[in-house]
Amino acid sequence: MATASVKTPNRKDGSPSTRQLKPEQIPGEVQDVLASTQVIDIHTHLFSPTFGKIGLWGIDELLTYHYLEAEFFRSSDITPENYWNLSKTERSDAIWKALFVENDPISESTRGVIAVLNAFGLPTEASGLQKARRFFAAQSIETHVGKVLQVAGVSDVVMTNDPLDPEERPVWMSGGQNHPQFHAVLRLDRVLWGWPQHWQRLASEGYGVDEHASGKSVEEVRRFLADWHKRMRPLYMAVSLTDSFQFPDDSITSKLLSEAALPSCREFGIPMSLMIGVRRQVNPRLRLAGDAVGKADMRAVENLCRTFPDNRFLVSVLSRENQHELAVYARKFNNLMPFGCWWFLNNPSIVEEITRERIELLGASFIPQHSDARVLEQVIYKWQNTRRTLAPVLSNAYQLLHADGGEVTRQAIQRDVNRLFRTNFEKWTAGNAS
Ligand code: FIX
Ligand code: ZN
Q1: What is the pLDDT of residues 99-117, one digit of tens each?
Q2: Is the Cβ atom of 240 under 6 angstroms away from ligand 1?
Q3: CATH 1.10.1040.10 is held by the domain 59-137
Q4: How far is the CA of 371 from the centre of ligand 2 (A)?
């Protein structure tokens, strides 16, 4: 009997039904709750319209996403050097031809472009590129943003904001942004591991720092963080770390993390996000697409969580082989919040595996996904795929609960999905997300 589409009506006050579900009703309820619960996208590279051209959107940006550039070089005779000499339009023409015309868009990233075109009712066949260009060219970003987030079921977008980025900095120095759906994050890569290349920038701004982060450098970095916390009001601080990251060690990274960033996070009451496992520029010819992945030593996470029990950590690791360790560490440290299926993990086959083991080990006490979107409309396909992949995983968890004698109601499902999509993050950021 077709029960999957059966939904238990909400109660008169609109709250989810507390009526016990039959096993065959569970998938339909889970799908409906996932579809109707807006998500906080806790890590993206999107920018609100205030930031102008560094906020990427539209079909040519979708097609020249670095995920697609990496796939393009496998299906085209154009060398990276020749590709970089092309204009943006010529690059997206070449990618469309190689990945969407001469081959079927069956990879996660190519299929995502098709899903976005489809979401706007645009043609998805080979001849559709020009019509898509006309459609996006006719959009005003201020209204387009609202429509895209509404279609994607995203209520809040958390950005990645680098105070030392010359393109982004002028916006913050002239008052910043106040779009209610976009939230700042203080990204510290250039300070925490890029110190040799960037310490002089802080010095030139009047912070009394030196090449070895000695003397007054730590207190001056904390002053720098306080200045930017005031300017950005970030929900958390963040850093991306390679697969060789160790803590503790005698590096400037460890020193500034433990003596400046983490104390400042405690002072401001915000978490520290650690994204660990990237192997940077394994093929520099591909530029942003040139990064890869490496298995990290998770004892660094263990040492940080144990040494700094008053800090809250958001942690995402890039290696599939590190996922089980991360989930086990989350059982040991309640100041550790695992999040997302990052980058090369954001594929249904791996998202399913990671999410199942997280539910089995952590219940609903983790953050299942972030989009890492770099182009606005990507949130549409990334969150469509996440909901599509989460549905059977969650349904299975509730059907097992029912089989073992537990009660399953729509109200309970809604409570868990709220936690996974929203309140785990809101509580972690001390309620600053709303
Ligand atoms: O460090 C990061 O925030 C990574 O997500 C990016 O560097 C990466 O290029 C990306 O966008 C992956 O999805
Ligand atoms: Zn990212």
Answers
A1: 999 999 999 999 999 999 9
A2: yes
A3: no
A4: 8
